[in-house]
Amino acid sequence: MEIVIKNLSKIFKGDEKKGIDDTIAVNNVSINIKNNELVGLLGPSGCGKSTTLYMIAGLKEPSSGEIWFDNEEVTNLASEKRGIGFVFQNYALYPHMNVYKNIAFPLTNLKIDAYKKEYKIEMLTKENEILSNYEELVNIIKDSSLNNKISKERAIVFIIDKYIISPSFAKRLFNHKLFTISSKEELKNKVDNIINENNIKIKEIKDKYLKRNLKIDDSFYITNLNDEKIIQRRKLVYDEIDLMVREVARLVQIEEQLDKKPKELSGGQQQRVAIARALVKKPRVLLLDEPLSNLDARLRIKTREEIKRIQKETGITTVFVTHDQEEAMSICDEIVVMNNGKVMQEGKPIEIYKNPSNLFVAKFLGTPPINVFKGIIKEDGIYVDNEKISSLKNENYINKEVYVGIRPEGFIFVSSKKDEDNLDTISLRVKEITLNGKDTTLTLEHDSFIGENIKIVVDSDLNINIDTYQFKIKTNKMFVFDIDSEERIEIK
Ligand code: ATP
After folding, report:
1. Helix, strand and coil percent figures for the chain, each rounded to 5
2. Tag placement on the chain: N or C end, fewer CB within 10 Å?
C-alpha cells in the first residue's frame, strides 16, 4: 500500500502561565511512501520523526494536513481501523503471557467477515489426501524419533511443520498409530478403512446441508444452491489463530520459543516477537519506532538484516524511525531525512549520499562524516584559505564565502608540494594514521576546517607519515553550499 502525507503538521501546545512555548514538532511535512517499500524516517533526536510515525499510526492527532493510505484518507480514522501493525521502541510485550499468547493476543477479539466454511469436511478431505501417501506420514513420524524412541510431542511438531496443520489435526494423524504396523498389507487395509469412514462422514455432513438447501464447494465454503458463499461475522476459531500464529512465528524465526515468557528471551528474540505480534493481523502497513535501539551493536546489524528480509518476504509497506544513518542507509529502499520538524531530503540512500541537497543532509549521512571547510569562490575557481583547490565555480557566487564539503573518499594523495602539474590541491597536515586493512583513515588539520578533525580514507599502500601533504579533490565528492541558507549550489 502507498502512503501519501500532505502538508502534515503537529503543534504541541505550550503553557503560557508556566512560560512554556508551543512546540512545532512536525512542520508542513509531505512524503510519498511507495507500495512494498521499506522507508526510514531518519534524523537527530527531537526532529519530529516519531511524531510523524505516530500520526501515520493514528496514535497522535495531526494539527493540520492529510494522510492517505492508497485512495482512502485516514487522517481522522481511529488507529485500530487503519490496518497497521506497530512495534514500539520497548517492544511492550505482555510479561505474564508466553510468546505464543503474546503473538495470538491481537487475534483473540478480532471479528472478521468471513465466508462460512465447513471445517470438518476440510479436515477429513485433507486427512484423506495425506493418507493417500501414508508412507510419507509414517516416515516423518519415524524420522522424528530420538535414540530409536518415538516421542509423541516431537512427532506432532514434525507433522505440523510438514503439512502446516493444527496441533489437534496432527494429534489425530499420530493417533492412527500407523507407524506401529509392520505388515504392509495390514497397513494398507487400515488406511483404506480410515479413508472409507471419512468418505462416509463427508457424505453424511453434505446430506445434512442439502436438506437446508446448502452445499459445500471445492474449497469447503458453504454456498446456497446458486453457488453464492454465505458470509458470517465471527471471531477467529482456535485452529485459524493457531495457523496464523505459527505462520508468523516461522516468518520471524521464533517458532522454537513459543512456550517461553518474554523475560526468558534475548533482546533480539523479544524484538522478533514484537514484530510477529504486529504482523499477525496481516496489516496493510508495518510501523516501527526505533526498532533496534535496545540491542547491542552486533545484534543490531543482524536484526536490521532480519527486518529487511521479513519486509521483502511479506512485501508489506514498512516505515521505520531511526537516528542511525548507517542503519537507514544499509536496509532502506528510501530515506526521508528530517530536521527541526521538516523534511530535508527524500530519496534512495545512495542518491541522497551522492547528491545531498543541503549541508545538513551532507553532514548527516556518511561515516566518517563529510569534511566541511569555509571557502570562497573566485573568478578562477574555489579557494580554501589562499589555496585554489578546484577550477569549478558558480558565476553567481564570485567573491562570496561558501561552505565546501568533501567526502572522506574524495581526496587523492599527491604528496609533492604544489607544482605546475598539481595546481588545484589542498594542503593538509597529517596528525594521526589509522590502518583499517585495505584502507587507511587519516586524521588531519587545516585552519579553515569547521569541526574538530578532518578524516579522510586513502589506500593502505600509500607511504604516509606525520607531515603536510597535497591532496587533489574528486569533483563528484565535493559539494558547495550557500553560507546562509546552507542549500547546495551548483558548481561547474
Ligand atoms: P527522538 O529520536 O529523540 O525520539 P524524534 O525525532 O522522534 O526524537 P519527536 O519525539 O517526534 O522527535 O519530538 C519532536 C519534538 O516534539 C521534540 O521537540 C519533542 O520535545 C516534542 N514533543 C514530542 N512529544 C511531545 C508532547 N507530548 N508534548 C510536547 N512536546 C512534545
Report:
1. 35, 30, 35
2. C
Q: Is the pLDDT confidence value at 16 over 90?
A: no
Rounded to whole angstroms, the maximal C-alpha distance in the chain is 101
Answer for the pair 8, 30: CB distance below 8 angstroms, yes or no. Answer: yes
The b-or-e profile of 191-219 (16+ CB within 10 A means b, else e) is: beebbeebeeebeeeeeeeeeeebbbeee
Predicted pLDDT of residue 422: 66
How far is it, in rounded angstroms, from Cα 214 to Cα 225? 6
The secondary structure of 154-211 as a DSSP string is HHHHHHHHHH---HHHHHHHHHT-GGG---HHHHHHHHHHHHHHHHHHHHHHHHHHHH
Beta bridge partners of 384: 387
User: Interhelix angle for 297-314 vs 238-251, to 10°?
Assistant: 120
Nearest-10 Cα torsion for 157, 159, 163, 167: -60
Whole-number CA gyration radius for the chain: 32
Beta strand 317-322 pairing with 285-289:
parallel
- What's the pLDDT band for 385 if we cut at 50, 70, 90? confident
**CATH class of the domain comprising 368-489:** mainly beta
- Pick from 50, 53, 293, 337 the residue to mutate for probing ligand 1's pocket: most ligand atoms within 8 Å of its CB: 50
For 55, 58, 84, 450, the CA distances from 78, given in Å and listed in that order, are 11, 6, 11, 48
Of 383, 328, 371, the closest CA to residue 350 belongs to 328
Write down the pTM of the prediction: 0.79
Q: Whose CA is nearest to atom 29 of ligand 1?
A: 12
Mean pLDDT of the chain: 92
Give me 144's grid cell: 522424528
The boundaries of every CATH 2.40.50.100 domain in the chain are 368-489
Q: Whose CA is nearest to atom 11 of ligand 1?
A: 48
Name which of 264, 328, 334, 262 is nearest 292 in CA terms: 328
Ligand 1 atom at minimal distance to the Cα of residue 43: 6
Q: Is residue 416 over pLDDT 70? A: no
Question: Which residues are paired to 469 by β-bridges?
Answer: 428
With b meaning 16 or more CB within 10 Å and e meaning fewer, what string describes 317-348? Answer: bbbbbbbebebbbebbbbbbbbbebbbbbbbe
- For residue 229, the 8-state DSSP code is B
- Predicted confidence at residue 419, as pLDDT, reads 64
Is the preceding omega at residue 262 within 30 degrees of 0, hence cis? no
Sign of the four-CA dihedral 313, 319, 322, 326: positive
Instruction: Confirm if 19 and 42 have CB atoms less than 8 A apart.
Output: no
pLDDT for residue 453: 85
Nearest CA to ligand 1 atom 5: 46
The candidate with the shortest Cα–Cα distance to 402, out of 472, 479, 474, 470, is 479
